[in-house]
Amino acid sequence: MERTFAIIKPDAFAAGHAGQILSRIYSEGFKIVGLKKLYLSKVEAEGFYAVHSARPFFGELTDFMSSGPCVVMALEAENAISKWRDLMGATNPADAAEGTLRKEFGTSIGENATHGSDAPETAAFELGYFFNGLELL
């Protein structure tokens, strides 16, 4: 079993899609081993996305991620990282395959409904950023 980190972003949460996304997570065979609803501060969003701090979209990204509540999750499944990325779909919802979360719930590259770790090292950092060991079941 592998663990990955996932977010239901503020756009999807505000639009009332969190329940549908959680349902899809379960129906696709993931086990949710950690879950929190939170409202990231700008500083927390900047810390989480620090890897992108030199990119031109950093300010817009961190403003968006601190604009409203989100749901952060630790997911577990066989090949969880690639499986979750496949379920999310392409970063740009316009390019995402039919049936993916971003195609169904995303509205733009910036507001694309979900986030997921892209590698084991990223997953370890991201899981540790939001969960301590006692919070993961």
UniProtKB/TrEMBL annotation:
Pfam family, one: NDK
PROSITE patterns referenced in this protein's UniProt entry, alphabetically: NDPK (PS00469), NDPK_LIKE (PS51374)
Binding, ATP: 9, 57, 85, 91, 102, 112
Biological-process GO terms, alphabetical: CTP biosynthetic process; GTP biosynthetic process; UTP biosynthetic process
Cofactor(s) in the UniProt record: Mg(2+)
Coiled-coil stretches: none
InterPro entries xrefs: NDK-like_dom (IPR034907), NDK-like_dom_sf (IPR036850), Nucleoside_diP_kinase (IPR001564), Nucleoside_diP_kinase_AS (IPR023005)
Entry-linked PANTHER family: NUCLEOSIDE DIPHOSPHATE KINASE, NUCLEOSIDE DIPHOSPHATE KINASE DDB_G0292928-RELATED
Protein function: Major role in the synthesis of nucleoside triphosphates other than ATP. The ATP gamma phosphate is transferred to the NDP beta phosphate via a ping-pong mechanism, using a phosphorylated active-site intermediate.
Similarity section: Belongs to the NDK family.
Protein name as it appears in the record: Nucleoside diphosphate kinase
Species of origin: Pelovirga terrestris
Native organism taxonomy: Bacteria, Pseudomonadati, Thermodesulfobacteriota, Desulfuromonadia, Geobacterales
